[in-house]
Amino acid sequence: MRVFSCVFLSLLLLAWSLGTTVVEQIGTPYRMIAEHLDPAAPRGIEYFAQLERALDTHGMLEACPRDLARSVVTIRLARLDAALREGDGGAKLRALTDAQTALNAALRCFPHDGNLWLRMAMVEFVRAGPTESVAQQLAMSAAVFPREGATLKQRIAFAARLAQEEDAAGAATMVLAKDIAVLVGEARPEEIASLYLEAGEVAGKYFEESISTLGSGRQTAIKEAIDRAAAALPARQRF
Question: In angstroms, rounded to a whole number, what is the distance separating the alpha carbons of residues 86 and 84?
Fold first, then answer.
């Protein structure tokens, strides 16, 4: 089992949207718990130990209520984050298994949710490293959900990480190139600059290739945003 920094693990939570226009009564307790989970102030493993009874959905996910599925996945991912930070081997394995179970149930209900596929790829990567399944799940996320802003940025960050792994580099770089082209064409220059400086050398060349295809005005705006963002970084973090 691999050990990753809290910064990387927080990707499991940051891009997961809890927004919904219809609140189903059956999911209300889970939604209330999920909405109070703040990635900036993560809960400890003891907190989630006390929620075990509340997380018993008694087969309610079989009915596929979206609000319940989203909330249970959010809680399971937060518990996994806590277990990876604080737990022993057994706690980590249980949390990984439960997170994958929740994601599988949610994907059975909502197979066209690219955010779910991305979370599944991340959890599988934590469990087993850069497997073929991780690459396939990443590709599914891009195929069914290619343009949504928050998921797109998180997928670029994860694909850039995965592109460094020989076993998954091919599939990851294909997703990376397409996602970066979308981002560069549509996002604000400040967003592009931030991700360009964070994503690393492999992703950097795809950013530069995509930027070079733009009109001169947008190229200039993005390059100026990158220069401003780079100047604001501590010297040791600059390229």
Answer: 6
Do residues 58 and 2 both lie within one domain?
A: yes
More confident residue, 200 or 1: 200
**Tally of domains within the chain:** 2
Structure tokens at 124: 């599988």
Phi-psi group of 215: left, alpha or beta (phi > 0 → left; psi -120 to 50 → alpha; rest → beta): beta
pLDDT at residue 167 in the model: 79
**Residue 211: predicted pLDDT:** 96
Q: Is the pLDDT of residue 225 over 90?
A: yes
C-alpha 95, offset from chain centre:
17
Burial pattern 126-150, b for ≥16 Cβ within 10 A else e, equals: bbeebbeebbbbbbbbbeebeeeee
For residues 93 and 146, membership in a common domain is answered with: no
Q: Is 52 helix (H, G, I), strand (E, B) or coil?
A: coil
Q: Is residue 73 part of a domain?
A: yes
Label residues 63-101 b or e (16+ Cβ within 10 Å = b): eebbbbbbbbbbbbbbbbbbbbeebeeebbeebbebbbe
pLDDT of res. 239: 43
Per the structure, the complete domain to which residue 96 belongs is given by 1-110
Whether 120 is in a domain gets the answer no
Distance separating alpha carbons of residues 113 and 54, to the nearest angstrom:
25
